[in-house]
């Protein structure tokens, strides 16, 4: 992985102190999304990692409680030539769903996923990637396990090391492009 390509992405991440509440340092990827070269580079880096690490992936799962999973997971899945499965807020998906309650760093949420998405729970499992934020990672993994999905790796753009999200995953592999203390 090229340090220059990583730097291009890191340079486009903007820190916002005291958002969404005092004491929280939010890392905003909006400038990265506005820069087509930086965004393409981000997707290139993720695609390179997935292709080099896993020869068979059936779906990319995106945690979409705050839209980042949609924004990154969808183009990554398209590049890989595979499907995308959203994990949304409870009540945002039609049909039968499965959901789980969990605590965020600064609140509570309840993600859900459609049981009719065409994966898991049908006698087999489909390898997939998960693109979560730190606050929803464990809950989304538990939700996917309930749906009989095989999770290959939790893949994130930004790892906030102080939150220790990767340590809570037990045996699920974890990969982050950018790390901040």
Automatic annotation (TrEMBL):
GO terms for cellular component: cytoplasm. It catalyses: AMP + diphosphate = 5-phospho-alpha-D-ribose 1-diphosphate + adenine. It comes from the Eukaryota. The keyword Acetylation applies. Its EC number is 2.4.2.7. Keywords: Acetylation, Cytoplasm, Glycosyltransferase, Phosphoprotein, Purine salvage, Transferase. The keyword Mitochondrion does not apply. Its main location: cytoplasm. Gene3D superfamilies: 3.40.50.2020. SUPFAM superfamilies: PRTase-like (SSF53271). GO terms for biological process: adenine salvage; AMP salvage; purine ribonucleoside salvage. Pathway: Purine metabolism; AMP biosynthesis via salvage pathway; AMP from adenine: step 1/1. It is found in: Cytoplasm. It is an enzyme of class 2 (transferase). Catalyzes a salvage reaction resulting in the formation of AMP, that is energically less costly than de novo synthesis. Homodimer. Belongs to the purine/pyrimidine phosphoribosyltransferase family. This is Adenine phosphoribosyltransferase. The gene is Aprt.
